[in-house]
Design goal:
This protein is about 35% helix and about 10% strand. By secondary structure, it is of the alpha+beta class. It is globular. The protein is built from eight helices and nine strands. It has a five-stranded mixed β-sheet. A two-stranded antiparallel ribbon has the order 1-2. It has a two-stranded antiparallel sheet with strand order 8-9. Bound molecules: FE2/S2 (inorganic) cluster (FES). The site of FE2/S2 (inorganic) cluster has 10 residues, from helix 5. FE2/S2 (inorganic) cluster binds near residues 103, 139, 146 and 148.
């Protein structure tokens, strides 16, 4: 069979060198042992082979098929379905700009356009130094911090075109970069190994692990019917920290849900959302 796009024989995929295969087999054995059905280990194993080469190669898929007793077609079907598996060589840092509806209108589209020009690359392309791959990403459930940029799946909240450009400049210069919530960034290969289920052994990394940000916690409290406290919010845009008031008199931020229903709806306009039903 011939891969028409490359003009090269497609099968069989070459195997890893013996020493690499032996190392990956030992890792795979540890992963597989965590599941009652070995085929359930396919997703972490795809991360494992991605940690070896930076993307999921045909060799990596062949390895997964071999150790799990699957066909390469089955493995390929999974690897090509999920966007977290890269199919071609890419940069050390995958910079994803959320351009789904909320982030787009809050500035995500502008950030993406500015980064394209700043980096000189298009969607899913990598800078010449091999450091940064830029891509559109879908909603990552961080809409309360829109517009959001993700680097190697870590969140950078409330971004602007300028803050995003500083971010990619720091990445390309090799400066340490810490996401809004979580430990300092590591490379895509290192991230893939953590996603495969192996511990992040960098000192302090686990303790620095993310968690919900203030806006999410306020939303959670409101959803539970609790009043939210005043919250100190720091923006990366360089604005001064502000004390956010108790809900009831104004919005928690420019894009949060209103705290009161419309005055034209007297039945529901008596108090804060969090007090309804109390
Ligand atoms: S729309 Fe961007 S995180 Fe939801």
């Amino acid at each position: 069979m011939t891969d028409v796009s490359l003009g090269m024989p497609q099968l069989p995929a070459p195997d890893y060198p013996a020493d690499v295969r032996a190392r990956l087999e030992a890792d795979a054995k540890e992963v597989i042992a965590r599941y009652p059905d070995s085929r359930s280990a396919l997703l972490p194993l795809l991360h494992l082979v991605q940690s070896e080469e930076g993307h999921v190669t045909r060799t990596g898929m062949r390895f997964c098929a071999d150790v799990l007793g699957l066909t390469t077609a089955e493995v390929t079907a999974v690897a090509t379905f999920y966007t977290m598996y890269r199919r071609k060589p890419s940069g050390d840092y995958q910079v994803g700009v959320c351009t789904n509806t909320l982030c787009a209108v809050m500035g995500g589209d502008a950030i993406f356009e500015e980064l394209k020009e700043h980096l000189g690359v298009g969607n899913n392309e990598t800078t010449e130094d091999g450091k940064v791959t830029l891509e559109h990403i879908e909603c990552n459930a961080a809409c309360d911090f829109a517009p959001v940029v993700m680097v190697n799946w870590e969140f950078f909240d409330n971004q602007t075109p300028d803050s995003a450009k500083r971010l990619v400049d720091d990445l390309r210069a090799g400066r340490q970069v810490t996401p809004t919530r979580g430990a300092p960034l590591c490379t895509y290969k290192e991230t893939a190994r953590i996603l495969a289920g192996f511990p992040d052994e960098r000192p302090g990394a686990v303790e620095a692990g993310g968690g919900a940000g203030p806006a999410s916690l306020i939303g959670l409290r409101l959803a539970r019917g609790e009043a939210a406290p005043a919250t100190r919010v720091v923006h990366p845009r360089g604005e001064a920290p502000q004390e956010r008031p108790q809900p009831g008199s104004e919005h928690l931020s420019s894009h949060d849900a209103p705290q009161q229903t419309s005055a034209s709806d007297p039945e529901h306009s008596a108090g804060p959302v969090g007090e309804e039903g109390e």
